Amino acid sequence: MHRTATGTRRALSSLVRGGGVVTTPHGTASPVHKSYLALRPASSSSVDESHLSGTAAPYIEEMYESWTVDPKSVHASWDAYFRGSHYTPPPNLANTKANEIPLSALAGAFSGVEMGSSAKPSSKVIDAHLAVQATIRSYQVRGHLAAQTDPLNLNNMNRDDAQKLIIRSVTVQEADMDSVFQLPSTTWIGGKEKALPLREIITRLENVYCGSIGVEFMHIHDLDQVNWIRERMETPGSLKLSNDQKRLLLARISRSAGFENFLAKKWSSEKRFGLEGVEMLIPCMKQIVDKSTDFGVESVVMGMPHRGRLNVLANVCRKPLEQIFTQFAGLEAADEGSGDVKYHLGTYIERLNRATNKNIRLAVVANPSHLEAVNPIVEGKVKAEQFYRGDTEGKKVMSMLLHGDAAFAGQGVVYETFHMSELPEYTTQGTIHIVANNQIGFTTDPRFSRSSPYCTDVARVVNAPIFHVNADDPEAVMHVSNIAAEYRSTFHKDVVVDLIGYRKFGHNEIDEPMFTQPIMYQIIKKHKNVLDIYSKKLIDEGVVTKDEVDAVIDKYDKICEEAYKKAGEEKQTYHKHWLDSPWSGFFEGKDPMKGSPTGVHEETLTHIGKRFSSGPPNAGDFKIHRGLERILKSRMEMVENRQIDWALSEALAFGSLMKEGIHVRLSGQDVERGTFSHRHHVLHHQTKDMSTYNALANLYPDQAPYSVCNSSLSEYGVVGFELGYSMTNPNALVLWEAQFGDFSNTAQCIIDQFISSGQAKWVRQSGMVMLLPHGMEGMGPEHSSARPERFLQLSADDPEYFPPIEDEFEIKQLSHINMIVANCSTPANYFHILRRQIALPFRKPLIVMTPKSLLRHPECRSSFDEMLPNTNFRRAIPDEGPASENSEGVKKLIFCTGKVYYDLIKARRDQGLDDKIAISRIEQISPFPFDLVKMDLDKYSNAEVVFAQEEHKNQGAWTYCQPRFQTAMGGYDRRINYVGREVAPSPATGSKAQHNKEFKAMISDAMNVS
């Protein structure tokens, strides 16, 4: 809605935050220096400066700084002021009441001051011009508060109240409105005109900042970005579209609305989470894609919630309509996967962009109903695609995230994702965020769902510009879309478009919204949709005729009818059509039941080990911490002795994979050093900041890249990011390590919704590795358990089904499981399981319970012999001591997993029970090694069988393993008993004494041989 200057006659602020340039009616504008750090002369001033506002002072200081460089850079009146007063900072006016200065006879205010004159200007002249500059800035800062962005007019602020927030403190007479003022260089409202009457200045500001667009950008710290946005918002005529552009826009609106109307007609009782009320989302997205393609973008990865997804797939991605319509038919799947509801599915399309005649790749990432969970996954996918393309500036690959208003304000992962946007190892060089704002949550009014004025306020933390726009003004939406695309292309930073509309129906199409929002929905029932509004506007302008409008609508309806007919001929649905991350060529030409070897030649192990145990080649110029010198020396001794510890095994796995051309990326909190100071992949120069050395990145001249990067203190966001990264290229080892395994619980949403179930729901594989430090070591409840029971509960293998023992037993199990859960007890096994992630002919997520105290345990060592060719990962390790040589005499067979093995063998040795107790380790807990467990059970057929764990009985691996042991035993004639801590609600005690007491009881019980 355009505004006039009428309401401003009561209020024009001379002292509101801002101003940019102070001018005179007869002079030129005084430029503002870019720096806000003004130079203040030390000498005192004899001039009374009490009339100057403290809020105006920064701009006077800027002018003073410019004046000291070039006196001609400011107007003659300011030149005279500075020359005559020996300017000093204004006095503190904290307790002084703001002036109310009448601006009468402004046109002649400078009549007595000639250009170049040294006469002192009057205080009224200075204040009058400060008032105009400050008023312009006030519109720029707070104009969005008065903008008419709500199509329902429920939340548009009262005009007078809004203007009081924008301009205040000064009485303006009617005669003042025609006074002419020079425009400052911080505004473009004049176009080619350098001066305008006050009436016209205010009218233009109202039209720019208080119409259908409300823009928040003055919080941005970078002045170049602020001026860039000012220019594009304020330049006269920037909002105008050509008639051809208007007709194209009408066609896109008709497709967006037509798709929803067609679904409503054919499937009136189906949930589809349509876009009615925010149909402009489709033209908005298409315009951003078109504009970004013009700027060189070749691939756009999109993430969005359920509302409007089917319309986006149809009209933005141009997914064949018949494939979408088959999802309503309830057909059985013709390929693998349990599938998901239609409004959670994704897609991947490569096509010609008809608007730009350039090829474009569009991907919509599959996403569950958990609102914003997809955000970091999209960013990770984009980062990976940029990495593999060498697109370091983000010019070719771009992310676009769509949000609901309630979720954008309420979901913490939104902040976590924003927070990564400018971190070097996580930035995607700018994301375009679009909020499909229907001004309501499920049934919750915004007044009760957020504390901030806008749902988008979280974006201000990264200085992102935010464009609020009325979704019933299509041309304003196009203007904002163009600015957003250009801003991202120019500055490579995030930008937000808040598309404010409404929700025509309830949360879904069969929901009744009048229960909770009666007033809003009374208005909505009478409100015309955007297609009717815009088509009438174009008909009134003579751009189109009514017949042409009807023809456009009918054309798309016929397209939908033809697709509907084709969909009806389908007998099955194919999930492959909905893949959002196709891996071209990865599965072709491979034996699906044959993996590559994981052993490595000794020369390779020795070379990597020695390089990893050395400082940089120019070690004399690189000062290493003395403690690290000892660590490197110790590593070198291990390599020379053909032995490895945990850190060395990991380095050998990474290095050998990179030698084979596999990119390795390790991410997480403090992973460069390692939380437990064991890894030290990045060495820091002790006297030079930002001078580092990464040995694993410098092993071979032609190796694949190694990325090791400390993340922000986030789990939800970063785990999602790394999952997205892993989905882009199967020939990469992508790992995330928790600071402590316990902390992975804040990423539980990503684990539940994507990692454990992604392949079943969306046929989407990932080989991502989660490294979770785990061990009950008396460190309290938050630094003990990585909660293996949670991952095991999510593992999809039947505890009562014993798979047939045949060739390829191991790989068949892995191909059928949804994810792998392991708790390795030897460095060699850790080495092999990491390499196996790449050796497999498919990809499965891997969850590894990694050690803490075992990182330096003298017995937790492996020999090179365990990693050479013809060696591999051992899913279970049987007892290899005296007990194994006399199985008939063994009284007790203990199964365990992970660190507790070393506690058990120490106790067995101390008590002289080496030939009475056999201890077998389960290294890969899921999928369960039925075949190897049965071999041990058969071997020690006379022994009592127990499962010993350090975790509490209702936690750890026990509840998962117990029924599987019973299945391996062939029933309940022989039972497996539990040894360990009793049940508890907390993972561990906070008392060291209690911890030791529990530990001793567990060991005593385990060693009890009747």
Automatic annotation (TrEMBL):
Database matches in SMART domains: Transket_pyr (SM00861)
Enzyme class: oxidoreductase
Biological-process GO terms, alphabetical: glycolytic process; tricarboxylic acid cycle
Alphabetized UniProt keyword annotations: Glycolysis, Magnesium, Metal-binding, Mitochondrion, Oxidoreductase, Thiamine pyrophosphate, Transit peptide
Function noted in UniProt: The 2-oxoglutarate dehydrogenase complex catalyzes the overall conversion of 2-oxoglutarate to succinyl-CoA and CO(2). It contains multiple copies of three enzymatic components: 2-oxoglutarate dehydrogenase (E1), dihydrolipoamide succinyltransferase (E2) and lipoamide dehydrogenase (E3).
GO cellular component terms given for this protein: mitochondrion; oxoglutarate dehydrogenase complex
MF (Gene Ontology): metal ion binding; oxoglutarate dehydrogenase (succinyl-transferring) activity; thiamine pyrophosphate binding
Residue ranges of the region described as Disordered: 1-27
Cofactor(s) required for function per UniProt: thiamine diphosphate; Mg(2+)
Domain Transketolase-like pyrimidine-binding: 644-857
Subcellular location: Mitochondrion
Signal peptide location: none
Keyword set includes Oxidoreductase: yes
Cross-referenced NCBIfam families: 2oxo_dh_E1 (TIGR00239), PRK09404.1 (NF006914), PRK12270.1 (NF008907)
Pfam short name (any one): OxoGdeHyase_C
Name of the protein this chain belongs to: 2-oxoglutarate dehydrogenase, mitochondrial
Family: Belongs to the alpha-ketoglutarate dehydrogenase family.
CDD domains: TPP_E1_OGDC_like
EC numbers: 1.2.4.2
